[in-house]
Amino acid sequence: MAKKKVGEEKKLPPLPNADRYSRIVTRFSPNPDCVLHLGSARAIILCHEYAKMYKGKFLLRFEDTDPRLKRTALEFYDKIRDDLEWLGCKPDEEYIQSDRILIYYEYARKLLQDGNAYICTCNRQEFRRRILAKQPCPCRGSPPETQLERWDKMLNGAYSEGEAVVRIKTDITHPNPAIRDWPALRIIDTDRYPHPRVGNKYRVWPLYNFACGIDDHLMEVTHIIRGKEHLTNQRRQEYMYKHFGWEYPEAIHYGRLKITGAFLSKSKIIQGIRDGTFKSWDDPRLATFLALRRRGITPEAIRQLIIDVGPKTVDVVLSWENLYAYNRKVLDPKADRYFFVESPVQLTVKNVPKIFHVKLYLHPEHPERGSREYRIEPKNKTREVQFWVSRTDYDKFKEEKLIRLMGLFNIEITEVNSYAVESHYHSEPYQEAKRLKAPLIHWIPINAGMPCEVVMPDASTKEGITEKLCKKLRLNAIIQFERFGFVRIDKVNGKLTVYYAHR
RNA sequence: GCUCCGGUAGUAUAGUCCGGUCAAGUAUGGCGGCCUCUCGAGCCGCAGACCCGGGUUCAAAUCCCGGCCGGAGCACCA
Fold first, then answer.
1. pTM score, two decimals?
2. Which of A145, A253, A307, A354 is 20 to 30 Å apart from A344, CA to CA?
3. Domain regions of chain A by residue span
């Protein structure tokens, strides 16, 4: 078997019963109550990837049918669209459930008419008690005429919140009580809780299983790919499909995806934003796509990761290191290299014999990408030159007498104190440094630096100096600071602000 | 508690349906070396796993039963 090389991709297993459908249709159906995060990546990428693989359709459907409990907000519709586009998963079609309320009414009426659903006006506790005892509630047996009468009352406001609910008839003796006569539509006082898109236009709203079940059929979804928390929802919906004489689509229920140390629950993210723990949706501590993007995690890396993880039902607990490995594969060949000196200290080199013209390549394996040059000219009688070097290299200054300034020349350390390092010129050839096993460090000429702030994944910052010419870097470019790590350019003014991705 | 689902190295995954070719493949991480003017990349090597117990069978990671562990659901949320 051929060895797996970079760029060679693992393939997804085939979709079950794909040949039974003339056109594969998948869908991603978020509730627009939060931005998307890595936890949604499995649904999105699997759906999109399978649609692409079978030359089918990938749908985006906003499931915004709860104006009351969920914090559905206008801003999230667009943020979700942006996230999908960034991920490279642009939907072929888009639907919004709050635009489809009348369609749901139509199907509800039909169910009521056919005696496959009923309107329950029982007290919630009372109903629960009965259903747990496998007993039908009194409303269940009423004739369709009564049901339709009640339906009209629901629609025209004769009932208020909580007083009536449409239930789908299932098997009231089903071993799983959750499946017995589940609720399909309820009343919401939209004068008090207006919907962000349609305000108080409707007061009867479908629940998840009803709206989703109807839509999957109407939109001809062939393969539902969603988290395994929906397994019992499939069981519930199957009863409704049977009432309508529809065939239930294929369903794949994958396990949850978690990353050690990341909050992947919407509620935690939203709570953190509210209480100010996180400054914004793209706070580097978050695993939202917005945050990952800001940190320089590429969509290709996420995509490959999800494909490798596959559609299994087991929960997956990844480490950040794992994601980084995928990202590094994407970034390494593309990222230009620059120097960044963390916690700068001044280095003086004396006895520099001549003027040096150094050429530093932007990428060691791709010289054709270009280079930058520095003219190193000794000053004064002492023939000295000054550089910024990093305090993180202090241990080297103390332990090794001989150090090589990458691409330049070798120096011998003569004095180290807390604010400066003194040295003198030793030799030029790299071979010499190699022979004497001198450590390599990076440097910036004292007048060629500009301040730079690195925002770390834990939101802390590291201050330092980078090369002045980084000012010309494009926003959002991802570069590598040699011996430091990959970073994304976030802001450029007098100071460069970058976000740290990983080593 | 009830109803489902699942358990392969640190992590993730292949193999499980249709028992043998699996003394278990791959990636990542770890370790060692080589290479490279980065602590990045690349190359080579090393260590590392079938949850446990029974059963069926000539043969079980794969089939059956029991146990243990983990997960999901049990909303007028999605």
1. 0.94
2. A354
3. 14-331, 334-503
